[in-house]
Fold each of these.
Amino acid sequence: MLSSKMEKALNAQITVEAESSQVYLSMASWAETQGFEGVAAFMYAHSDEERMHMLKLVKYINERGGHAKIGSLQAPPLSFGSFKEMFQTLFDHEVSVSESINELVHISLESKDYATHNFLQWYVSEQIEEEALARTILDKINLIGDDKGGLYLFDNDVKQLTVASSATEMTK
Ligand code: OFO
């Protein structure tokens, strides 16, 4: 059985994951309108992943006798300036998600809820991967700068990253 503090904190994380999914969906749509299909595909896939993170929480809370509550979400921005700014936003967003996961881990230890602690380890490793991926992409973008040809190649490159990451996802 979940403590009410743990249940409340896990429910708040449902909103965090759902809002992440919406932000990346909005990034996908924006990138698509700019003609960057690779970046759009990457963001669409990322948005789906976040929805999966959210669903995992919903199932877990209900499985442990709690009630997963689906609430309203904040609307994401509609445009993101440049790709550099967009991927910087993605990176910063992932860092803040990692912080909220760490807070959940802290609460689980405080309330001696080892089942939830165990459940959260998946999110801990996921965040390490996501932050690393965002950092790799940012490094690439910083190398390219405003070079049009470079951006074209980057768009293709990022498509591979999508494929590679979903392939790893499937073997998990
Ligand atoms: Fe990318 O964040 Fe979910 O966990």
Amino acid sequence: MRPLALTTVLLSLAGTAAPQAIQFDQGRKIWLLKTAENSYAMGLDAQSQLQHLYWAGPLWRIDDIPAATVKSDISSFDPHQMIENEEFPGWGGVRYYETALKVTRADGNRDLVLHYASHHIDGDQLDITLKDIRDDIRAVLHYRVYPAAGIIARWSTIENHTPKAITLESAQSATWYAPPGDGYRLSYLSGRWAAETQLNQEPIHEGMKVLESRLGHTGHNLNPWFAIDKDADEEHGGVYFGALAWSGNWRITVEQTPYRQVRVTGGFNTFDFSYPLPPGESLVTPTFYAGFASHGFGQASRLLHNLEREDIAPGHPNSRVRPVLYNSWEATTFDVNEEGQKALADKAAKLGVELFVMDDGWFGKRNTDNAGLGDWFVNPQKFPHGLGALIKHVNDLGMDFGLWFEPEMVNPDSDLYRAHPDWVMNFPGRPRSELRNQLVLNVARDDVKEYMFKALDKMVSENNIRYIKWDMNRTFGEPGWPEAAPAEQRTLWVKYVWNLYDIMARLREKHPKLEIESCSGGGGRVDLGVLRYVDEYWPSDNTEAFDRLRIQEGYSQGYAAEFMSAWVTDVPNMNSRSTPLQYRFLVAMQGALGIGANLNKWTDEDVQLATKMIALDKRIRDTVQRGDLYRLLSPRTNDTTANEFVSKDASEAVLFAFRHSQQYSTTPPVIRLRGLNPAVVYKLESIDGKLVDTQTEMSGAYLMQNGLNLKLVNDYDSTAVVLKRLP
Ligand code: GLA
């Protein structure tokens, strides 16, 4: 193996061959996973335990990595098992940290000690099979290396090859280790409805921090993303980061042990988790993506964004850039009808909108949120000609048509509930807690899944629907599944999500042009699991532009601008704040631009500005959606927010800047750009003359070293500058 590794390196240095992403040192039993940005290693010790060995910047020489060794006990209270960085520990022996797998056998025996059994390398994927020291219970650890993206995906398959059933009580995707040490800091995203993805940073001390959802969906309260650093900022310093791809109950624990280990374990939430595995069956855990960036939080985000665009989201690289969308919700709420929607569509088309989405209210007896969910047929009073006439009108105006659904829900006042009261999750004889007057269908049931698929498929087959806004407006309650055998009932948490993904996958397969937006009362379903099936997320029901700056900043830590639906809505907004229309547009143009305002109320001046802004969006959206994001000034720490997007070849860039409120006539900060080509000259176009600098052509070097001065004077002032490389 060693000469081959050296040859590979030399070839790759000469630029004649792609470097080998996975290497194995047969003699010393070490695996080295390599990407352009980082390397990851593990090895077997003399007892055949798989130990984590290295995770940091890129390595090229496997010989440098010392073999895994069995350590000595420190005391009878500090066994060696606790000190070794076991890559995927089972709960058994003397292990007291968060383990990756916990089982109970039919006879009550719960001890599980996993040792290496075999491995297999296939291109960029490595599978290592661990097996219990006595029984044929296996954990197959999957590692998929994304050499260009700088990310490794890990997940596991738990297999029962014994003749008796076992029950899984914890099935994690991976345990990750930062290099042993103190002084680490955890970054994570928390919030609540209408205030999602707020960035938190706190020191990691001994003990455990749990990030999780017990809500059934991904959740507004915590998002399955984390980052760990010591002293990094946007541009500098090492950052470990990861995101768990799961839209149900998830859990990420961040733990510092007394031995200075920093461990991150993630997968299915262990809360109320119990998954029976009959003989011959297996369970696959969600994918946990993670990476290490040497150049700060900015690079960590860009690596994730690249991975999402290149390897996770459907349709890439051939998907279209996100079109400019209009959504009727804030304009009409439930009061939709053919004439009203046509009138809005006429106005939207004139502005340059490309995708017209009718939101809630079009189906069943849906006049308020009291009734109708589950009855996915067009309301004949509101739409006497079905949806056909409206869709034709929208299409004739040159726009695609999109429609809102909330397929997982039912109102008790609906034909569906009257026919199938047993279809909702429930515990017999117990209350059925309503939230927003609705109950959650037990999507884990295959008959419910088929109903949902058929209802959506029928609507999409019979109408020219290009886009579905897939909403989910409450958390689970009383998650019972009385029809299943008692031991199976808790699998609802997992099977619900699989069935949800299955419906989306089948719809997309049958209707290849169909696009889906993931919405859950705003950002309740923003995760990399659902991103395999959707084109956009709705990050928050809070569309107030100043609040959005922070929601979007947090969102951007883990998720790319392309997938972030962002609307311009009317003021005063939900928090009573009023910001200028240009400010609202520029905030929204940092994602996939949408308009959610009541266009019937817009003045000529509003229409004029909106038309200009939408035209601008169409010029810059390739750079915003497919380029690299640089967060220049954070709304958390400055009175000015600035974000810059740079195209992959650095030939184009867009700078967005926002003044929150100034005091004492203080001048706004100078904004130093990043990510440009220092050696070329850029032409600068200010969208509104708010550039103080008088030159309109500047080198990348000057723009990055000296920066730009902007006339951001008033409260909620905003501007944008478009940069284009001169030939
Ligand atoms: C949720 C969504 C909104 C809207 C309403 C409709 O709150 O997040 O955008 O679709 O439902 O009822």
